[in-house]
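Researcher: I'm comparing several assemblies side by side, and this is the next one on my list. It has 474 residues spread over three chains. Same procedure as the others: predict the full complex and return the structure.
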Amino acid sequence: MGKKMTLLMFSGEYDKAMAALILANSAREMNIDVTIFFSFWGLFLLRDPNVMSTEDKTTYEKMFGMMTPKGPEELPLSKMNFSGLGKQMLLEMMKDDEAPRLIDFLEGARKKGVRFYGCKLSMDIMGFKKEELIPELEVVTAQKYLEDSLESDIQLFI
Amino acid sequence: MGKKMTLLMFSGEYDKAMAALILANSAREMNIDVTIFFSFWGLFLLRDPNVMSTEDKTTYEKMFGMMTPKGPEELPLSKMNFSGLGKQMLLEMMKDDEAPRLIDFLEGARKKGVRFYGCKLSMDIMGFKKEELIPELEVVTAQKYLEDSLESDIQLFI
Amino acid sequence: MGKKMTLLMFSGEYDKAMAALILANSAREMNIDVTIFFSFWGLFLLRDPNVMSTEDKTTYEKMFGMMTPKGPEELPLSKMNFSGLGKQMLLEMMKDDEAPRLIDFLEGARKKGVRFYGCKLSMDIMGFKKEELIPELEVVTAQKYLEDSLESDIQLFI
């Protein structure tokens, strides 16, 4: 029977998202079934920078949507961000090594059939609508995450 | 045989504690056995805000006890805390959605029979006494955590 | 058959490294096989403070090497670091309890036969050379980590 990995992506930072997506891409290349459950800040990664709905949003939800990163390239580093300078430096170092960027790993994961789950409770609280996030996203509850996780060989909270 | 989940709660932040306790409550509703091992900053969540012992504490331990969050409602956010403003905004957004607060999830976990372990070494270093923390807490070593973890279907470090 | 634990050490902070190495030492005492895969900031822990190569490094890589912590004792706390004051306080509290320091737990892990893996991609990007890190380190890919992790009873992302 096939192997499974389930990641719980809680953090909303460039470097942690890199780690998650590198694992997801590598796992798919090894034919491991991969599900990522995005909750809280993790949802920032999946935002489409070109779609921002204000319909059915409270004032707080609109403010929150405007103040927070929109999609992979806007995520800050978890350390040494220095208002973006540290991140710029890391990006230059990645370019020198011809390493793919976060957006490339995200595209890779989508093409390779990683399953994308969004936490319903987090989306309700933050006011994110399904159409503001990547189209593959399925909106599920924590229970669904736990069911998948129970059957997985690898589970990580990132 | 029953399924088990063991969480290692290392972080002392409102949003990460929410994530841990939502998982714990959901898992109990699915009849999954749940243990949370609280170490380092994670212990802040279990402090009783009305009990602060100074007996048998060094000066550093007393200072540390005063400077750090006392119980669930005092925990900061891991991101966007903005000296409490960001947290206030999140709390308002949760209220708009009638989402329970952290304290409710903690009460729920206690009522639903989640097992609470406190890391002995962390408690010794930080100077926290058993009577300053929730009464259900059992003080155990890292070895006890590992024994439980080995038998678990889900393990996460939060 | 023997039990196995695989840690993915992503963070580069004193307290998180303590947590990882306490688990690693305790697990080895219980005869559990332990592998730690160091990626991103986690590699800082393994730097030899006395060896710093500038050969074959780009300007960014040299700068990065100089700006970032060199070995266990230079790592900051993940919380309450206060430019090192909070860390100093924690170290004093640890001394009062005769708790070992991070460097002792690292030495313990090396003596007890913990397996040390370094993430090849992270080392390439950050410009760290094998000779700048502890001699036990094996440089491996994410796939190797996943293979080990699939066979492990405990996996944590720290």
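Model: For your comparison table: Chain C touches chain A at residues 8, 10, 12, 39-41, 58, 60-61, 63-64, 67-68, 121, 124-127, 141-143, 145-147, 149-150, 155-157 (CB under 8 Å).
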